[in-house]
Amino acid sequence: KAGVTQTPRYLIKTRGQQVTLSCSPISGHRSVSWYQQTPGQGLQFLFEYFSETQRNKGNFPGRFSGRQFSNSRSEMNVSTLELGDSALYLCASSLDGLGNTGELFFGEGSRLTVL
Amino acid sequence: KQEVTQIPAALSVPEGENLVLNCSFTDSAIYNLQWFRQDPGKGLTSLLLIQSSQREQTSGRLNASLDKSSGRSTLYIAASQPGDSATYLCAVHGSGNTGKLIFGQGTTLQVKP
């Protein structure tokens, strides 16, 4: 069974550009969450999507957005990039539903560097 | 607001030692608690999940305990090996089955041969 797949793994952008990251969850998982990891702030929750709807949102500016498709794949977008957006962006999926344990499974992440 | 703290921030031990990593959280109303391992530059690997109604979970040389009332969890690693060197992260789920986890800052473990 394939795990959570994130693309691209590495990317370099310049300030002011925008970036789109992709996440394919484990087959059958309907919840996809996104996290930002930086040395200073650690792991912070960005947002969660379930059934193509944003179910939860963290404390990030509106430049950070996401969406989920009917096949549960998700994308996140960051517009007008700033130096501080340099981070490892992690995607997690979980099997949502009655009786679910709530265990999250993470991908390898997308390492974004903003110059 | 839920806050998660992990102590110590770093730990270096000789191979073969048994060790304990600590995690504390401020709000005892949690859905579950999950321990992860992260190797440098990699994603997170789920180690153990403890539901709020459980006291402990075991997997191989790992044992995690949960004391909700005191807001504490411990991860016990038996007979440590150099391959256990990594950062260990504790995360709590607030009430409700959602994808939102609150993470601690992690404990970076080095096991010396």
Descriptive account of the structure:
The complex is a heterodimer of chains A (115) and B (113). Chain A is mainly β. Chain A has no helices and eleven strands. Chain A has strands spanning 5-7, 10-13, 19-24, 31-38, 42-50, 53-57, 64-68, 74-78, 87-94, 105-106, 110-114. In chain A, the strands form two sheets. In chain A, strands 2, 4, 5, 6, 9, 10 and 11 form a seven-stranded mixed β-sheet that branches. Chain A has a four-stranded antiparallel β-sheet with strand order 1-3-8-7, with no helix packed on it. Chain A is globular and about 40 Å long. With 113 residues, chain B is an all-beta fold. Chain B has strands at 4-7, 10-14, 19-25, 30-38, 44-51, 56-59, 62-67, 72-77, 86-94, 101-103, 107-112. In chain B, the strands form two sheets. In chain B, strands 2, 4, 5, 9, 10 and 11 form a six-stranded mixed β-sheet that branches. In chain B, strands 1-3-8-7-6 form a five-stranded antiparallel β-sheet, with no helix packed on it. In chain B, strand 7 and strand 8 (72-77) form a beta hairpin. The radius of gyration of chain B is 13 Å and the shape is globular. The mean pLDDT of chain B is 94. The interface between A and B is medium-sized, with 31 and 25 residues.
List the helices and strands and how they pair.
The complex is a heterodimer of chains A (115) and B (113).
Chain A: E1 5-7, E2 10-13, E3 19-24, E4 31-38, E5 42-50, E6 53-57, E7 64-68, E8 74-78, E9 87-94, E10 105-106, E11 110-114
Parallel strand pairs in A: 2-11
Antiparallel strand pairs in A: 1-3, 3-8, 4-5, 4-9, 5-6, 7-8, 9-10, 9-11
Chain B: E1 4-7, E2 10-14, E3 19-25, E4 30-38, E5 44-51, E6 56-59, E7 62-67, E8 72-77, E9 86-94, E10 101-103, E11 107-112
Parallel strand pairs in B: 2-11
Antiparallel strand pairs in B: 1-3, 3-8, 4-5, 4-9, 6-7, 7-8, 9-10, 9-11
